[in-house]
Amino acid sequence: MKKVLPVTALFAAVALATFAARAQEAPSVVSASPAFAQLQPDMQGTVTQPLMHAPAGDVIAVYFGRAPKQVYSKQDELIYVISGHGSVTVGYPSYDVGPGSLISIPRNTAFDVLARGNAPVKAILIASPSDNPSDKKILEQTQQ
User: Fold this and answer.
1) Rounded Cα distance, 51 and 61, in Å
2) Which of 5, 16, 33, 91 pairs with 107 at a CA distance of 20 to 30 A?
3) What residues contact residue 51 under an 8 Å CB cut-off, 6+ apart?
4) Three-state secondary structure call for residue 4
5) Phi and psi (nearest 5°) for 133?
6) Order of all β-strands in the sheet with 66-72
7) pLDDT tens digits, 19-74
8) How many whole angstroms from its chain centre is CA 117?
């Protein structure tokens, strides 16, 4: 029984050292706040700023004022609303969105975004596998 404690302590020390080494190697996550500080909110369109690129996808800071009905054939999108209110149409259903809303947009699904009130919808957009503007097809311009 006396030998079990030193062996357990040894395994715990190795695990802790491995965790500490990996934490130092991990890339730092970019804060969205500085990216939003660089963007001018726009009620007439969509304004974006890339935050992070990884093989699995891109993370983008975005303001939605009026995003036209559009579709991506090669990427899925996930939008997390930070502030602002509006509506998002994904396929057929339309949803009211506000802070904390999470919208999933599968590839080959038409969608649009419309901010309501005096401020655009401020959100984090995750595109997977990656954000490719040439993949976007505008289906219908929004009405001014």
Assistant:
1) 6
2) 33
3) 30, 32, 35, 58, 59, 60, 61, 124
4) helix
5) -55, -30
6) 94-97, 85-90, 111-116, 66-72, 136-140
7) 444 444 445 556 888 889 999 999 999 999 999 998 889 999 999 999 999 999 99
8) 23
pTM of the predicted structure, to 2 decimals? 0.76
Whether the CB-CB separation of 123 and 81 falls below 8 Å is answered with yes
Sequence-distant (6+) residues with CB within 8 A of 23 are none
In sequence order, which ranges of 3-133 are alpha helices (DSSP H)? 4-25, 32-38
Chain position carrying tokens 């899925």: 76
111 Cβ contact list (under 8 Å, min separation 6):
67, 69, 70, 71, 77, 88, 89, 90, 91, 105
Classify 135 as helix, strand or coil. helix
8 Å CB contact between 125 and 77: yes
Cα–chain-centroid distance for residue 44? 21
